Please model this.
Amino acid sequence: MQTVSLNRSYGGTQGVYKHASRETGTEMAFSVYVPPHPDGAKLPVVWYLSGLTCTHANVTEKGEFRSACAELGLIFVAPDTSPRGEGVPGDPANAYDFGLGAGFYVDATQAPFDRHYRMWSYVTAELPELVAAQFPVDPKRQSILGHSMGGHGALTAALRHPDRYRAASAFAPIVAPSRVPWGIKALGGYLGDDKQAWRRHDAVALIEDGARFRDLLVDYGDADPFLTEQLRPELLQAACDKAGLPLTLRRQAGYDHSYYFISTFMGDHLRWHATRLKA
Amino acid sequence: MQTVSLNRSYGGTQGVYKHASRETGTEMAFSVYVPPHPDGAKLPVVWYLSGLTCTHANVTEKGEFRSACAELGLIFVAPDTSPRGEGVPGDPANAYDFGLGAGFYVDATQAPFDRHYRMWSYVTAELPELVAAQFPVDPKRQSILGHSMGGHGALTAALRHPDRYRAASAFAPIVAPSRVPWGIKALGGYLGDDKQAWRRHDAVALIEDGARFRDLLVDYGDADPFLTEQLRPELLQAACDKAGLPLTLRRQAGYDHSYYFISTFMGDHLRWHATRLKA
Model:
């Protein structure tokens, strides 16, 4: 692991790091904020998965999470959203919603993407091991949140690993990728026609198939241009209602899909996580 | 005035706007955050002047000011740092510290800069008039802060207009541009050899020449790479001590010159401003 930058912030340290990933076969960058803490302490860790087109840098610069993390004593980790670099194939038409910046948190099975696009294993296994080895984290106290495509990643990770993550939440998540254009393109491209494989990367389908989580917090803005076609929070509401899974789903008036929305509610989400991480 | 973007944030509205400036003879962009407020209310306005290389966008995206502005009921305005566009001359060697992104908040007297580089009149006269006409501001309650070159701008504006600004503060300001490389280059380039003109754009010289302000807050980081050569806060301390001007000068351990530093202490500064704006 190589340190790219370190900056003091809110009494802690915002770092950016690079490492050679065995899963993606590429160099991967990520950011970690470590809040002020007593020597020797092991802290809870919050994973943040970003949306389409983002790298670790978007939330690191615009997410406004450090104030709450410093106050609550949370480590905050932001991975990249796809492999990158020479030899990594992207979208054939250079679209923003597939390939680079759009890994969708799956392990691709379809050539030519299967070699590098292993973001599921990267964010749920490889990077947690690295972070646990390099930072003062308590691996028994992890939680996960994300935005849009990263909200999809956070919800599916939580539903498939309910014992590992003590809390999960999302900003404007894609809740049913099997049924919306962004998701159909991505799951088809990375996983092919195997619809059972799609269901394991679809929060609503996972809940329909029996996956459960203690409770979920989801915020979305009613001025989000992707709301009705791509996000469809009502599908998550219906699945949770049917399954008896406690969902706090909040419609935020006037908010869009941007970091102006995310940063506004970041503190709320981190307090939700902290309550469960420290319970 | 043309609206470039509007985003709901912390219950208020973050806007970006453009207008044709009579002072600079160019199109100028700026951002304004309007916090949630009762209909018909007139709010205090805080001016933020940015540092070298910045536009309005840096603080708008990374400054983390909206949370405190929403809580305190403050409008926050961020102008650009120079004229830009076709026909605007820059640094002959394309350096970052003169010309584009480096207007130094003066009205240039030297050709070819005198035609467009009129940032002093722009930020202290033209833009305040426009903002007062277009936004729900109370022009009797204004304050000013800034970073680095913008800290220089904020301190000189406050010292020359102590009745207009009710509060002033700075992050890592250039306090004595007449005596440091960045300032000598900029003041020489824009104002020529007239050292009396330089003194009117030098906070320490203004205080030596009798300018006063009710009190000042200045933060700097002791890991700031520009501290000893360009910023020299000790010169401001000495001038304020001699003049009996109350200065709260805080050395922040481990902090550098970045927005990670600025955002950490932004809330403190805005609370300092709010106390004085509402007194």
